[in-house]
Amino acid sequence: MDGEMALRETVERQAAARVAGDEAAFASYLTAQALLQLGGGGRGAPVLPRARRYEILDISDRGDGTADTAVRFEGAGSYVVRTRWESDAGVWRGVEAKVPAESMRTPWWRRLIGQGPRAARTVERRDLS
């Protein structure tokens, strides 16, 4: 199997794990650094809206053992995960990952009641005295 086909298969398996709700399998395709970049906070996969389907938007193999991908997830909102992959002995691993803020979309009713990703989440301060 050539490198691009192996990469596509890896991206498909990772996206399918996200849709299935298997956060451990989703996270297993990423390095710890990439997981932290997504906002996992060291506790596993990031807290992103539940995905019900996915679409691979782009796979760009650079030819030097690295590649970039973009996958759109949709469900209770939508977002795009952009990942930089590196191949080590034929095994692809996500080394950088991010969800661009402009790709985050929430249903109109969540924005209306202030439950979207851009909603201000402030915590009431209590003095320690």
Helix-strand topology string:
HHHEEEEH
Structural class by helix and strand composition: alpha+beta
| Fraction of helical residues | 25-40%
Mean pLDDT value: 81
Give me the side-by-side strand order of the main sheet.
1-2-3-4
Strand content: 25-35%
Query: First CA to last CA: what distance?
Result: 65 Å
What does this entry show, briefly?
With 129 residues, this protein is α+β, with helices and mostly antiparallel strands.
Give a quick set of tags describing it.
alpha+beta, 32% strand, 4 helices, 129 residues
Written description of the protein model:
The protein has 129 residues and is α+β, with helices and mostly antiparallel strands. Helix content is 27%, strand content 32%. The protein has helices at 3-20, 23-28, 32-37, 108-112; strands spanning 51-61, 66-75, 77-88, 91-98. A 4-stranded antiparallel sheet has the order 1-2-3-4. A hairpin with a 1-residue loop joins strand 2 and strand 3.
List the helices and strands and how they pair.
Blueprint: H1 3-20, H2 23-28, H3 32-37, E1 51-61, E2 66-75, E3 77-88, E4 91-98, H4 108-112
